[in-house]
# Entry
Amino acid sequence: MIVFLIKRLANAVLVMLAVALLAFLIFRFAGDPVELMANEQMSQADRIELREKLGLNDSFLTQFGRFVGNAAQGDFGISYRNGQDVMKLIAERFPATMELALVATVLSLLIGIPLGVITAIHRGRWYSEGLQFISIIGVSLPSFVVGILLILVFAVTLGLVPAFGRGDVVQLGWWSTGLLTASGRASLLLPSLALALYQITLVMRLVRAEMMEVLRSDFVKFARARGVPRWRIYFRHALRNCLMPVVTMTAMNFGSLIAFALITETVFQWPGMGMLFIQAVTFLDMPVMAGYLCIVSFIFVTLNTLVDIAYAVIDPRLRDATR
Amino acid sequence: MTDHVQQTTPARKPSRLARFRQSDLWWSFTHKPSAIIGAVILTFLIVTAFAAPLIAPQNPFDPAQLELWNSELPPIWEADGQWPYVLGTDTQGRDMLSAILYGSRISILIGVASVVLSLAVGLSLGLVAGYFGRFIDNFLMRIGDVLLSIPTILIAILVSAVARQMLPPELRDVGSAAVLVLAITLSAWVQYARTVRAQTIVERGKEYVQAARLLKTPARRIMLKHILPNTLTPIMVAATLNFGMAILTEATLSFLGIGMPPSQPSLGTLIRLGNQFLFSGVWWVVLFPVVQLCLLVVSVNLLGDWLRDALNPKLR
# Structure
């Protein structure tokens, strides 16, 4: 077990180092940092001094080492665009993205699981087949299209909910939340639904597949023979045995949900990390891009590693199987 | 599929088409309505997109054909609609139908190019990794691991943004398509490489490969002529589904403003441009490109779905 743990952690560290290298290359070589930072009036001497001060004349390895060291302490430098600390900028936007992704995850489970159960136990009925067909469309629709359609229907035509921004937020320490105000909750509705739709279809298809398998198993047949009420078989016996893969998938996909949130955030002008990143991309604000990449990858890698370790704790067979 | 009886082969060897029409694949196709719908829609979209110069009412890239007094015309069935602007015009007087046809052509071309390029990269690296094993296998698969540990959309955005920055300004419009293909390939090749590698490792141990090696067949020939054909079934499914993904990724990047420029708009660019007028009541400039994009991706995915089931040996 300890060997597995060390191997898995080493792997995670390696991946993070590779990500850091990518971020560093972007920061250092996609455009000259000095030129991007300097303004018109700066003299040649000032530029050389700035170059020296930033340590851009050191060897590649020294620079990369310093970059990793700083990044590990959450220091990604200052934004080219407004001169603010990158970590502070991201930290300000972090709660908005987190809230969006969390609500979307909850929605996907609340909607996806019942739909999956229904389509599994009523297989072949017209509504099950219809839901299956809709789920293919749901997988095919890009999230920005879902967002635009939702805005067009619910905000522009019906005027039910706001389409832009976060509404009023309440500060809880450093965390800002929109869940405590009516306008905040209303603003959260469309973006979280747009982000969740893909995940809903995934959960639904997974639950359906698992349910169909479990319903064929002996213990379900035995429960039927014993005369256990049907809803009890479905929800107490069968569904419980389907939830493990659903939990795994939800945990694994949370990272990509945060990454994909950047599209939803752009559509809904949601003031999260993703919008910060897209703005940074258009203004070629390399430190912000590098910082965002590192932080999102860190969340992604951490979740994957935790899921793997949790699996190994539950199922000893996996300890030797993985590499 | 058990009730399908193969007819006895006639004396003369049947043509390729006749043989295809007797295959299991064709049988499953004709018995799956969603696959037929997908194929019909996709064929229609591809034909209209590539016939755009012939059938489109105007050339949306030719500024001389744009007339500002024809801007923001609604579709033909609305009160103010005007022939020949069937789907209305945008704020610059561009005919939406023409823009969509030309835009689909760009989207489809980029999708095809990305799939072809990622297939070429993925298949060759997968074959090499699986056939030679050891160091090169480890090295390539670790690179793949790292790429898979970053959300694909992030890779595509970063590559696209950074590569465009590196291009000289006069090449930026022309190079956008190439940059997009590169960005999509970089995030898509790993899947092919992994599939082919796994299959290659299995095939490498079989007798026919050993026999070929004993005959001193060059490694390149063994990989391409003997092993590759045996790995293609899962690859076909992956390639079809990835074609849909590639079109989506391109559309997403263009929507975010780091894909095709407004001078060469793909469907994603059209949606981005239309999205700015979402609240001014000009709904047709955003809705029609959205519908076209969805039709395109849904029809590809319907085909991919059918292919996955039809080629899955477990379901035979």
